[in-house]
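queue> pop job 88
queue> type: inverse folding (structure -> sequence)
queue> payload:
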C-alpha cells in the first residue's frame, strides 16, 4: 500500500506540474497546481465528513451483529459447515484445534465480523503449522484455507451496506444478491484451483522436519503468544469461542450441511430474479429478525445492541486516517487530470466487458489493500456524477463485499507462522479474485446494467 499511495500522489503531482508548465490556463480558471492544492485540502475534509456519516450506520449493523453473535449464531454456522470442512481438509483431524479455528474464521467472514475473523485466521494457521512437517513451506491445507479465506461466501457485507446507506443510497442492501453470487463463484474457483494446482507445486523438495514432535495429528498445540495477544484485542473472539463451547463443538449430520448449501445456492436465482422486489425488505427484516433471534435465545438485546453500537463508533473513528490518505490521493489524481487521461485511454476497452474504467481502480486495488479499496469505493459512490445506485456504484460495492485483501491476508497469515514458500496459494487466490470480479460484473449487468 505504501508504493500504491506514493505512486498515485507522484503521478498526480507530475501530471499537474506538466500541465502547469506546458499548458495555458483560460482566464478565470484555476491553474492546474491551484486546482491540485484545493482538491488536496478539500479531500481531507471530505474524508472526515464521510467517517462521521458512517457512525450511525456502522453502529446499527454492528449492534445487530452483536445481538446475533451473543445468541450463538456463529456457533450454529460453525456446527453447520463443520462436516463439509472435514471433507475438504482431509489431512486435518476432525477434532484438531485447527479445524475449529478454521470453521470459526469462515463463519465470522460470512457474517462480516472482520474483527473476529482475523484472529481466528491467525490461530488457524498456527494450529495448521503444528501439523506441518516442513516448517516454512505451506501445506495443502494452508493453501486451501487461505484461498477460501480470500474469497469466502459473504452472507452479509455489513460495512458496505453501511457505507452505501451513509452515501444516500435508496437501496443500500441491493448488493446482497450480487455479492452472494460473486462470492460463491469465487469460493468454488478457489477450491477447484487449489486442488488442481497442488500436484504441480509439490512440497516434497522442502526439508522434512523429522525431529519436530508436534507435527502429528494427535498433537495438542499450546496457544502461541501472538494468538493470545490477538484474542486479548478482540472481545468477539472470546465470545464466539464461548458460544462454540456451549454448542459442544459437535457437528450436525453431513446431510444437514448439504441441505444448507442447497438452500444457499437456491438463494442466488431467487435474489437475481426478484432482487429489486426483495431488496427493500432486507434491512427491516434484518433488524426485526436479529432482535427476535436474540430474544428467543435469551439475549439481553438492548444491552448487546448498545455494546455492538459502541464498536461501530470506534470502527468509524479508526478508519478516518485511512480514508484521509486514500481520498486525498484520489482527489489529487482527479484534480491533476491524470484520472481522466487513464479513463480515456482504456475506458472503451474495459467497458465492452462491463467493467467501466471508473471501477478499474477498485478492481485492481481490492486484492492489495482493504482500507485503500474501501476509500476508493467511498470516493466513487460519493461522486455526485456516479452515486451509490448507479451501475458503477453497485459494481464497486459488490467488488468490495465479495472479495478480500489477498496480499494482505497472505502476508499476515503466513507471516504469523513464518511461511516463506507459499507454493500455489497466491495463484489460487488470484484466480478466485478474477472469477469473483467476472461474476460481479455479470450479476450487476444483469440486475442493474
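queue> result:
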Amino acid at each position: 500500500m505504501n508504493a500504491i499511495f506514493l505512486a498515485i500522489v507522484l503521478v498526480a503531482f507530475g501530471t499537474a506540474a506538466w500541465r502547469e508548465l506546458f499548458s495555458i490556463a483560460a482566464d478565470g480558471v484555476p491553474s492546474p497546481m491551484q486546482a491540485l492544492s484545493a482538491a488536496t485540502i478539500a479531500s481531507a475534509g471530505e474524508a472526515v465528513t464521510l467517517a462521521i456519516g458512517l457512525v450511525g450506520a456502522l453502529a446499527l449493523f454492528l449492534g445487530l451483529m452483536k445481538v446475533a453473535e451473543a445468541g450463538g449464531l456463529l456457533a450454529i454456522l460453525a456446527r453447520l459447515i463443520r462436516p463439509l470442512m472435514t471433507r475438504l481438509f482431509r489431512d486435518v483431524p476432525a477434532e484438531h484445534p485447527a479445524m475449529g479455528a478454521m470453521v470459526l474464521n469462515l463463519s465470522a467472514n460470512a457474517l462480516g465480523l472482520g474483527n473476529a475473523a482475523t484472529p481466528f485466521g491467525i490461530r488457524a494457521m498456527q494450529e495448521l503449522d503444528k501439523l506441518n512437517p516442513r516448517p516454512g513451506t505451506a501445506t495443502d491445507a494452508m493453501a486451501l484455507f487461505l484461498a477460501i479465506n480470500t474469497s469466502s461466501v459473504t452472507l452479509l457485507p455489513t460495512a458496505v451496506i453501511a457505507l452505501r446507506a451513509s452515501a444516500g443510497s435508496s437501496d443500500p442492501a441491493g448488493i446482497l444478491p450480487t455479492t452472494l453470487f460473486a462470492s460463491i463463484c469465487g469460493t468454488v474457483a478457489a477450491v477447484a484451483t487449489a486442488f488442481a494446482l497442488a500436484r504441480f507445486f509439490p512440497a516434497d523438495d522442502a526439508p522434512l522436519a523429522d525431529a519436530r514432535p508436534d507435527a502429528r495429528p494427535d498433537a495438542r498445540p499450546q496457544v502461541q503468544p501472538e494468538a493470545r495477544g490477538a484474542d486479548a484485542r478482540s472481545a468477539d473472539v472470546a465470545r464466539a469461542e464461548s458460544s462454540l463451547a456451549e454448542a459442544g463443538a459437535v457437528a450436525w449430520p453431513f446431510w444437514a450441511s448439504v441441505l444448507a448449501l442447497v438452500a444457499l445456492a437456491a438463494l442466488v436465482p431467487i435474489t437475481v430474479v426478484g432482487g429489486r422486489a426483495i431488496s427493500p425488505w432486507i434491512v427491516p427484516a434484518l433488524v426485526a429478525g436479529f432482535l427476535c433471534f436474540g430474544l428467543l435465545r435469551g439475549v439481553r438485546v438492548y444491552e448487546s445492541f448498545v455494546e455492538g453500537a459502541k464498536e461501530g463508533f470506534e470502527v468509524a473513528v479508526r478508519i478516518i486516517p485511512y480514508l484521509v490518505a486514500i481520498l486525498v490521493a484520489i482527489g489529487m489524481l482527479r484534480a491533476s487530470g491524470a484520472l481522466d487521461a487513464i479513463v480515456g485511454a482504456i475506458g472503451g476497452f474495459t467497458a465492452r466487458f462491463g467493467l467501466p474504467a471508473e471501477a478499474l481502480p477498485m478492481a485492481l486495488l481490492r486484492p492489495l489493500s482493504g482500507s485503500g479499496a474501501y476509500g476508493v469505493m467511498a470516493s466513487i459512490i460519493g461522486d455526485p456524477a456516479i452515486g451509490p445506485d448507479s451501475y458503477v456504484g453497485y459494481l464497486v460495492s459488490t467488488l468490495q463485499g465479495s472479495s478480500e485483501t489477498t496480499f494482505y491476508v497472505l502476508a499476515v497469515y503466513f507471516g504469523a507462522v513464518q511461511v516463506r514458500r507459499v507454493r500455489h496459494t497466491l495463484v489460487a487466490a488470484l484466480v478466485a479474485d478474477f472469477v469473483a470480479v467476472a461474476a460481479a460484473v455479470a450479476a450487476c449487468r444483469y440486475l442493474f446494467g
